[in-house]
Every structure is written in structure tokens, then in C-alpha cells.
Amino acid sequence: MSTRQVLQVFEQYQKARTTFVQTIAELATRPQNIEILQNAGVMALLRPLLLDVVPTVQQTAALALGRLANYNDDLAEAVVKGDILPQLVYSLAEQNRFYKKAAAFVLRAVAKHSPELAQAVVDCGALEALVICLEEFDPGVKESAAWALGYVARHNAELSQAVVDAGAVPLLVLCIQEPELDLKRIAASALSDICKHSPELAQTVVDAGAVSHLAQMILNDDAKLKRQVFSALSQIAKHSVDLAEMVVEAEIFPAVLSSLTNTDEYVKKNVAMLIREVAKHTPELSQLIVNAGGLAAVINYIGDSHGNILLPGVMMLGYVGAHSENLAMSVILSKGVVQLSIVLSEEKEDHIKAAAAWALGQIGRHTPEHAKAVAIANVLPKLLNCYLSTESSEDLSTKAKKALKNVLQRCIHLPALEPLLHSAPSNILKHVVSQFSKILPHDPKARKVFVTSGGLKKIQELKPEPGSALHEYVNTINNCYPEEIVRYYSPGYSEKLLDRIEQYEIPAVN
Question: Domain of life, per the record (predicted)?
């Protein structure tokens, strides 16, 4: 056999390997092919090709493995059990930028499925190799490495700490300062995944100087970048007053509020989450948001949104309203109660209605004036319906009941209380009657309305336990009327009158 013929054999072999990995990589993009490839033992066939002498074969084999591992946790586990990860980690330090991107993709695809698989990535020494990749000149390599690190960190605090210990945070902060948008997005996302688990992890990100750089990007026009920036800032702010203050000190208000009208729903939701996480900590932080025009912006946002996207806005109103009488009144004057009432009526999901009920209870619990503002928005019958409905979740029923009690303990607005008198169950009725006992002694017009609406008749039917609080409230109300009026509306009074007719002896006529 001639030299030429021998070389042709090797050329055919190389061509066959190249064709094989390219075809597998293409087949792996279609879900219907995955099980067939798995049953054919594709993992064992791809593994040796990761060390192929031809760089294109290596890279394409890694790409195919990444696509397979990305599909489900069984295939990702097969990559781990096949001892493929150490090979990839070794190659991360040795190979060219194309291979590094493919190898980082495989590590990310494995890590994403579960904490156990992410731990396998950590155990094979991948974090140190990925962190080194963050220092590469090529932006695509940095992006792939940042993505893989974020997928490890997102699962829990221990894995996130491992990413921090590997030295990733300062380099990720440098990455968000790079000009490439894709790299900025992925690095911001990874920082968000790191700091979400604990105050200590968030402090590490803050100490690396991330907040000021993130804050500079809030007005960037790129929606995908804005999503990640607002997510990272909210994950920092949520943990403590100090961290929230650090975020606020980066002068994000009022600039962030303009993004509540962004066309991208995830941008809007993440902005609302950030505002909520800042507002929840202290009255001072809530007041800062109010002073910046945040209440009106959030209320408009709730009015323009539906479903889960409006949830952080609803909760923000509750947090602001809970802090103080003045802040609750700010919510009321900004028409926040009206908007929450609409949410309670129109939203389908119980957890959203439960959040609205909770927020209304926080706003209305301060003074009679606050309670009246909630009551005249026709909220009380809606809360009662949520509490009593057999279709309501336990959480919605509990929060509606608590909100009702919060408002009723302060409410002295007769028209709002009247419907509840005839429909509320006994555990709520006590609060309603107690409020009438405060109103009626001082308001002659209210006393007349209470009779003509059937209220006086209703409380005569209650039969409260002697000595109970409800018994005292009923007595207070009865003392507001002449004795014959009370008797007239008492149960059985008409029968007694009929008996008297039967027993009545007509006087003899002279």
C-alpha cells in the first residue's frame, strides 16, 4: 500500500469522526431524538472524542454532550458517571477559546438540574478553571464561564459560597463593566444568583463594588440587561436594612420608576420587586420611595398589570401601609385602596387576592379614618366573601379574615358596616356589633337607619352569652332605644301580641 493510500485512510477516518460528531450535535437539538441517542450509547462514543487530535472534533463533541446534558437530569447524570467532567476541566486550561466555550456549556448544562449535579461540578474542580476563564481575553469565553458559575450558585447558599471562595465575584464585577451586552447580562445574572441566598453572600457582592456599577445600568435601553440588573439589586436589598440602604445610596431613585412602564414584563416585575424589597424594611426607606413618586408609579403599574406580575406591587403597598399612619394615608390618598379593591375582585389567583387582602388590612388597621377609607371602597363585603367562600384557599381565607378584623376594629362607618351585620359569621359579627355600639350612642340619624335597615332586629336575634363582650355590645345598642322599640323587634314579640289578642276581654258596654 502506497503512502498516499495510507494517508487517504486517515483522512477518511478523520472525516468520519467529524461527520459523526456534527450529526450527533445536530440530532441533539431535537427532543424526539434524545431517547434514541441515549439508548444507542452516545455518551460512551462521544467521551473519547473530547481528546481527539482534531480541535473541531473535540469542540463539536463537547457541544453535543452539552446539548444532551441540557435536556434532562438523567443525561446530565450520565455525563457525571461517565467521568467526563474531569476531562472537560483539564481541557479548559489547555485548549482554545472555542473548546473552552463548549466545555463551559457542558458544565452549565450539568449544574443546572439539581444541587447534587451542581455539587458534582464543584467536586471535579471546575470552579477554579471557570474563574480563570473569566480572565480570558475573549468575551465569549467569559460569558460561558459566568453562565456556568451562575448555574452552580443559584441552587443554595453552600454552592454559592463555593463560587465566592473560588474568587469569582471580583471578576464578575469586572465583567459587568465590559462593553459586550451579552457578557453584562450573564455576569449580572450570576451576581444575582450568588447574593440571593444570604446577607453574607450579598455583602460579598456589595464589598466588591457591584452596586454602583449595577446602578449605572438601570437606564440602559436593553431590556434583557435591565431584567438582570434589577434582579441583582433586589436580591441584595432584600436581606437587611443596611444592604437596602446601600442600594438606595447608589441614587437609584427616582430613576428606577421610569422602568415600571417598560414594555418588557420581566423588567417591570423586577423593578416592582426591587421597590418592594427596599420599602419593606423601615418607614424611612418607604418614605424615601413615596417622596420620589414611587406610590403613584406602583399603583399605575398595578392597574396596567394582571397575574403574577402585579404581586410585588401589591405587597409593596402593604409594606408601606403597615409602617405608619402617615404612610398608610399616603397610600389611601394615592388611590391605592381602590386599586387593591379591584385586584381583590378581578384577579383569578388566590395567592394574589390573599396579598391584596393582607395589604388592605395593613392600611386600614391604624385609625378610624384609615378604616373608613378602606370600608367606603366597598372592600368589606369582598373580604367577607373571600373568607367564607369554600373555593378560597386556606391562605386567602386566613388573610381575608385577619384583614376584616384589622379594619373592623377601627371602622365606625355605618353604611359599610350594615351589610356585614346580616351576613357575617359569629366570629366576625362580634367585631361588627362592637363598632355599632360605638356609633349609635352618639348619632341619632344612625340610630334611625339602624332600625329601618333591620339592624336592631338582627341583634335581638343574636342571643349572646350573658357576661360576654358581645352581650355588652348588644346592651349598649339596646340602651340607645326606648324599651318598647327594643321589645317590638325582639324574637317572639309578634306571637306575644297575638296571645294578648286571644286573652283580651272586651269591656262590657253599659
Answer: Eukaryota
